[in-house]
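Revision sheet: structure tokens.
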Amino acid sequence: MQALRDARPDLELSYLGGARGLEGRLVGARGDLPYDQLLVRSLRTAARDVHLVLDPMRVGLSVPQAWWLLGRRRPAAIFTTGGYLALPLTLAARARGIPTLVWEGNVIPGRSTRAVARVATRIAVSFPPTLDAFPGRSFVSGTPIRSFGGIAREAARERFGIAPDDRLLLVFGGSQAVTTLNSAVFGSLNRLLDRWRLLHVTGESGMGAALVAREQLPASLAERYQPQQFLTDGMADALVAADLVVGRAGSSTCAEVSAVGVASILVPYPHAGSHQRANAAWLGDHGAALVIADQELSADRLASEAERLRDDAMREPMAEAAHRLGRPDAARVIAKELLALADGRPLPSLADEAAA
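Predicted:
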């Protein structure tokens, strides 16, 4: 959204959400962006309950609802990140002749994105291998991420008290099941802190255990351990300051470690259709990350790999490979494509393909 407003400050934007999710609270409650809501919600067909019947009905009912909303808003173009909410929206948009741009953030597209892509105008993807799933209508944009512009590494390290000769290990789990990562950290804490300063984003469930663990450390090690429940406002600084990151392999995490150019140990979330395993493998195959399966991460494995990567000569080639894969301008690329669709102008992605 910010990239669109940067490109065209007078642009009128509105948001369309679903019946279940955070949109109503995060967007609707703000009041600075027109907000509408469809009947459809994320489908969860695995559960054998009444929603197994109601959810497909909601999708069907949302098509005429989306038709009416689009007629009222009259958008010049639509951007969606996929999901089943996008299916009635793109169907209604196609019927009204409104161009749509869908973004897929994982190497392996989800079922809903594959369905939506059949009626979408263009598909932006984060990883080059995903182009094969949408031949002829897709382009690589990267993943829209937070801005790292203007963050100096020296200042970021000072914020966390990291001396020039220290090395900072950042551990965070994003929104996906931090228990495995936290357990490995707690079991290897003394060994990690002997070689690293550790900034550990524990999540709400792990903060109590982290504080107890810090109290049990010798004073010389305790001051090297910084547990944080969340690090929302400081995450950009933390990534810039870090020498090694341990985390999951969601699209945003992969994009951010690449944009910053920092070495990482990626532990893909083992569920959700293997999407994170494929994301991590893309970085791992390019020498940009070390990939450890969730069931293989233990305190001993984490400690030994962190010890090996404490050596700058081992870690820096990984950081350089990550930097080569980075696409920090993804939001701007998507904004340019969307504005061209809205204006009926030649698409930047097609011009780039012709020039390649």
